[in-house]
Each structure stands twice: as C-alpha cells, then as structure tokens.
Amino acid sequence: MAGPFAGTILAYYGAEVIKIEPPGTGDPVRIWRGVDADGTSLWWRSLGRNKKCITVDLRTEEGRALARELAWKSDVVLENFKPGTMEKWKLGPEDIKAQNQDVIYCRVSGYGQTGPYSHKPGYASVCEGVGGFRYVNGFPDRPPCRPNLSLGDSLAGVHAALGIVMALYNRSGRKGREGGGTGQEIDVAIYESVFNMMEAVVPEFDRLGLTREREGTKLTGIVPTNTYRCRDDLYVIIGGNGDSIFKRLMIAAGRSDMAHDEEYATNADRVRNEPEVDGAISAWTATLSAAEVVAKLEAAQVPVGSIYTVSDMVNDPHYNARGMFEEVEVGGRPLKLPAMTPKLSGTPGGTDWPGPGLGSHSVEVLKAVLGKTDADIEALKANGTI
Q1: In whole angstroms, what is the distance from residue 282 CA to residue 109 CA?
Q2: Residue 307: exposed, middle, or buried by beta-carbon count in 10 A (0-12, 13-18, 19+)?
Q3: Marked catalytic residue, from 75, 153, 316, 352
Q4: How far is the C-alpha of 316 from the C-alpha of 318, rounded, in Å?
C-alpha cells in the first residue's frame, strides 16, 4: 500500500501518474475488502484515483522493455518491490539512468535497500513492530495491539511523496542550491517511517535509561490527557495538560479545590498525582452524557472531543464545511470519497476520476508517451504483454 498511496497523493495534486499493473489480475487491492456490484473494491476507487492505469506483464522481456521505455521518459519512477527485484528485471536505477540521467527514483520497501534486513519481506504490520510503534500501543497488562488500519504503509507513502517533492525541488536548481539539476534515489523504509514517529524515545533511553511503555489511553509523562467514560457509555478525549487549561478544566468539573491546589499546579505535579487527577475527572464525566461534557468543556476553552465513527465524520458539519468529502460517479451511482490534505490555496488538488478499470489507459499512454501505433498495440495484446 505504501508506494500506491504515495502515487495517490501526487496524482491528487496534479502529477501525471502512470500505474503499471499485471494483465488479468491487476493490483490486488482491486478486490480487497468491501466490493461494489461489479466486484471492484471501494478502497480501489479511492487509492487509484487520478491514476492512468495500464497493464504490462513484467514477467516478459517485452513487458519489461515497455516499462523501461516509460521510465526513460518520466521525471519519477516509484517502485514498491522487494529490494533486488527491479535490478533483476533490468529496471533498477542504473538501467533507467542510462537513458534518463535526471530521473528521480523512489524505492519503498520494508527495511530499505541496504543493511542486514533489506532482503526480508516487509509488510506494514511487521514493520510497525520493528519500528517501535506496536510496543507502545495498547494497555500495559495486554499484548501490543495494532490499529485497524495499515498505518505503516500510509506513513511510508507520505514519506515517499515528501521525498519525491524535495528531490524535484532540488533538481530544479532553485536558489542556486548545490546539486540542483540532477536526479537522485530515494530510499523509503516502512519501519523507518514508523520510527520517525517515535518522538523522544531514543534520547530518553540514551540519557535516562527510560523505555516508553504501553499506557492504554494515557500518554506517558503528560497529565491529564486521557479518554473518559460518560454516563451514556460513550467516551470523550480530554486534553487538559496545560497548566492554565487544567485550572479551567477542574473548575468546569466542580473541583475548584484541585484547580488552585499547588499539588497539581504543574505537569510534573500532576504526573506525580495522576491517579487523583484522572479519578476526579472520571468521576465527573460519569455523571454527564458525552455531549454534555463536550459542551461544558468547550465553553471553558478546554480541548475536548468525541471519538468519531465514520458515520459521525460523514455527517459532521465541520468535516463538510472543510470539503473533506468528494463525490464521484461509479457504475451510474454517486460514491463519496475522502478528500486529501493539506489544503493549498493555489493548487488545491482534487479527484478528477475514481480508480479506473484495469488497463483503462493502456492505449492512451502507449500512443501518447511511447508513440506506439495501433498495429504495435494489437501485437502487444495478442502476445499477452498488455
């Protein structure tokens, strides 16, 4: 998912992205999870948006030659294979640079292109563990858990897209930067993209010998920031860890005594007295509905929020005012897709078309980019190359 998500980001903001898929089956995501009436995954409609999808059989020399020609004419090559695969197919960086010296070649893998683990297959689930995320995620008395998402893949996709944009900026030679005007390789590892999110765990371990542990719904060393159960069995998240915010929170909760008690004045004080602080807040939220807690704390300017389901998101006025949903037509019916961020004032991006059918753009790309004739294309179809 990591390489494809990077391509989705770039395509959304205007890049011409040509996605190569195997004939017959295509990208496995086309049939994953919830599918539409035609058997196509609804996830694909989002992940494949704005991409020109062509089929090329990379198991054949003729198919690899087509891919090589396309790479020779491209600004960026983005690949998500196990290290060594592209070199085996003579589609590696040196093969492309032979005819396209300025190419930016972005490689996404589980563990990177070098090092003793580079040969290992690396799915996001495993790399989230090696990258440190899984160890700190969950409750201290239970095994480490995962979010019900491919978080590592998505993080790697964002890192890949960022790396590509930085490399393109550098290649443009703006502001006379040294090295401008040349291409380069970008090595994105899923485990390192996760590792980038690990905040201060390394310096805390190195200097203080501390190992960040699982805290459930809390955050080590920051109090109060937690999830609290309300009278209607719904939960709210309250972030009252700023000193002045904490005072407003406790006054709103009817605990002015704690708001003005020096025992709770600073974050270090509250960390020391965490059970008392969380106990007081939990006792208060248990007397009110989630909506009532949110209303009272918002009135007191305390950061608070509900835990949204997808239904909550789709029906939320703020999401809709911010344009966080886009509607496309698939199979003669409207389909809602998530908009992408960040929001750019001059080049906001958008969904021009949902993830297309397999090979929808093969003829267009082969003619426009490679100058193939109708006879050439029919021959490629006949021998199964496309």
Answers
A1: 44
A2: exposed
A3: 153
A4: 6
Helix (H) or strand (E) holding 379: helix 374-382
Decide if 233 is catalytic.
no
Give the whole-angstrom CA distance, residue 286 versus residue 150.
34
52: DSSP letter: E
- The overall average pLDDT reported for the chain is 96
Inside any domain, residue 231: yes
| Count of helices and strands (H, E) across the chain | 19, 10
Q: Is residue 301 part of a domain?
A: yes
pLDDT in tens, 261-293: 999 999 999 999 999 999 999 999 999 999 999
CATH number at residue 95: 3.40.50.10540
Residue 76, token pair as written in the block: 């960026």
Task: List the Cα angle 126/127/132 in 5-degree steps.
Answer: 110
β-strands 235-239, 225-229 pairing: antiparallel
How far, in Å, are 260, 269, 270 from residue 257 at the CA level? 6, 15, 14
The predicted-structure confidence for 124-146, as pLDDT tens digits, reads as follows 999 999 999 999 999 999 999 99
Q: 235-239 and 325-330: which strand pairing?
A: unpaired
Number of structural domains in the chain: 2
- Long-range CB pairs of 367-373 (<8 Å, 24+ gap) are 369/18, 369/70, 369/73, 370/66, 370/69, 370/70, 370/73
CA distance 22 to 55: 5
Closest CA to 215 of 138, 128, 281, 299: 138
3 and 78 in contact (C-beta within 8 Å)? yes
Residue 228 has what pLDDT?
Answer: 98
Q: Is 110 exposed, middle or buried (0-12, 13-18, 19+ CB in 10 A)?
A: buried
Verify that 179 and 67 share a domain, yes or no: yes
Domain end, chosen from 306, 329, 357, is at 306
Residue 343 reports pLDDT greater than 90: yes
24-48 pLDDT, tens per residue? 999 999 999 999 999 999 999 999 9
The enclosing domain of 267 has a CATH number of 3.30.1540.10
Give the predicted TM-score (pTM) of the model.
Answer: 0.94
Cα–Cα distance list, 125 to 34, 137, 170, 199 (Å) = 20, 13, 33, 20
Structure tokens given for 17: 């992205």
